[in-house]
Amino acid sequence: MKYFVYILECADKSLYVGCTNDLEKRIKQHNNSKSGAHYTKIRRPVKLKYSEQFRTLSRARRREAEIKRWDRKKKLELIV
After folding, report:
1. Across the chain, what does the average pLDDT equal?
2. Which of 17, 42, 46, 76 has the fewest CB atoms nearer than 10 Å to its CB?
3. How many domains does the chain have?
4. Is 79 exposed, middle or buried (0-12, 13-18, 19+ CB in 10 A)?
């Protein structure tokens, strides 16, 4: 199975970092679902700006946690 760490840009230009095993489905959930991340639900629409793929969930979660600790500037440098 594949796991993804991703960065979304919200309508208000804020950034959201997440992890999933189905990237396409998760982005649709962020944009359309009544359930899911409250942060993105109130900042729609969101756009995928970056993703990385991993073989294991543990590696993906570690990377997600690492990126979440970064400031906005460093996240934007990764996206470009």
Report:
1. 96
2. 42
3. 1
4. exposed
